[in-house]
Design goal:
By secondary structure, the protein is an alpha/beta fold. It has a domain at about 10-20 and about 180-395: Rossmann fold. The protein is about 30% helix and about 20% strand. It contains 15 helices and twelve strands. A five-stranded parallel beta sheet has the order 9-8-10-11-12, with helices on both faces. It is globular, with a radius of gyration of 21 Å. About 45% of the residues are buried.
């Protein structure tokens, strides 16, 4: 009874603050015109998962480590050159997704005007109709066909490692700067979290969300090479590497859920865990079922209020979701519209990890198929590790 009253008081107080205390809108960040990066030596081995390499922010440095691409043929059977996040000056390595097979430059691939060109060598090509069938086909267990649109009447979706195993891992040098927006550092909004980390005190982090936060389909979660941990474990590993704190991860995330489910179960699954920091990451499924942004905001506010009532010292990181495959109309909806509503909650005690903005920036350079594990709405290891990088950058002072 007392906890319920406290939650209601927190909720009303937060709502009053938002309506009458001013609104924080998404920051109109200019694109960072970073100076060209200085040349650097290859710092990590490339034949397996290296934590430091995977946590190295993609917006920094002159070497792009283990960037994922898929050798996807065009609809007419051609093999177009594959765009990369940067214009490559020198390709250092092209490997299979499990990092165990290294391909030969000049035989299997080449550099062509800053892009990756697949030659008639040993790299398996992916027929366009594998991911975008023109007719309804029978699929294996674990796979689904969804309605597409336009020239892609169907979209192939697979829940395991089949699609990531089609992808390649590319490491290359570049001299151009990152063209996107650098995630905003908001550690000043999270003083209690930073104080614990800087003092070397234990930190309990709750990750609460949908299947992306469950970890689907990171290779480590699937139990297959290259065994990259899910993004929440990467966040914990990054904090432990930077500070001396022992970071405990609490993860009650459930696949297929949306913010309404999160609000309904917030007491038992979130508040009763008494976290020091709560990372709230709903939105992908809300967008797919076209939940109005105001309802999503309301549900998020209910989650925060319930947790804060049980632990007034808890601080929050709100993750603006990645976006689904634009060729999948049944999954595209209101995801982009949630971002400004989350920024309304950015204030002392609450920060926003803007993966919507970051994913949109990546998609200006790379194809959706290069960064997905199921071809619809799940990130692969590359995009999941960027989500970890964005959260870690958000926590910086």
């Amino acid at each position: 009874m007392v906890a319920g009253i406290r939650a209601w008081v927190c909720f009303v107080t937060a709502l009053f603050s938002l309506l009458w205390g001013g609104v924080v809108c998404p920051p109109a960040l200019p694109r960072r015109n970073l100076a060209p990066p200085e040349a650097e030596a290859l710092a990590f081995p490339l034949d397996g998962y290296q934590q430091a390499a995977f946590l190295h922010p993609v917006w920094e440095g002159s070497i792009a480590y283990q960037e994922s691409v898929i050798p996807l043929e065009s609809r007419d059977g051609g093999m177009p050159d594959i765009p990369l996040l940067y214009d490559a000056d020198e390709i250092l390595s092209v490997r299979s997704n499990d990092l165990q097979t290294e391909y030969v430059q000049g035989v299997d691939y080449a550099l062509a005007d800053g892009k990756l060109r697949i030659l008639d060598g040993a790299i398996p090509r992916v027929p366009h109709m594998k991911l975008y069938p023109l007719a309804e086909i029978e699929v294996q267990p674990g796979a689904l066909l969804f309605p597409g649109g336009g020239e892609s009447p169907y979209i192939y979706c697979q829940g395991g490692m089949e699609i990531p195993q089609m992808q390649l891992s590319v490491t290359y040098r570049h001299s151009d700067a990152y063209r996107g927006q650098i995630p905003l550092r908001q550690g000043s909004r999270l003083p209690k979290t930073l104080a614990k980390l800087e003092a070397g005190e234990p930190l309990r982090i709750l990750f609460y969300g949908d299947s992306i936060t469950v970890g689907a389909q990171s290779s480590g979660w699937c139990g297959e090479a290259p065994f990259v941990p899910a993004y929440y474990d990467l966040v914990a590993a990054g904090l432990q590497a930077q500070y001396q704190s022992a970071v405990a991860v609490i993860n009650p995330a459930v696949s297929g859920t949306a913010s309404a489910w999160g609000a309904e179960n917030a007491q038992e699954l979130a508040a009763d865990q008494h976290p020091d920091l709560a990372v709230i990451a709903f939105g992908m499924n809300d967008g797919s079922i076209r939940i109005p942004p105001a309802v999503y905001f309301w549900n998020t506010l209910r989650i925060l209020s319930r947790i804060r009532a049980a632990n007034p010292d808890c601080e929050f990181v709100l993750v603006a979701t990645t976006v689904p495959n634009p060729a999948a109309p049944g999954f595209c909806g209101t995801q982009d519209a949630f971002r400004p509503w989350l920024w309304r909650l950015a204030q002392r005690g609450t920060a926003v990890a803007d993966m919507t903005q970051t994913h949109r920036n990546l998609l200006e350079r790379k194809r959706f198929e290069d960064m997905t594990s199921n071809n619809v709405n799940h990130p692969n290891d590359y995009l999941a590790r960027i989500q970890a990088q964005v959260i870690l950058e958000t926590l910086l002072p």
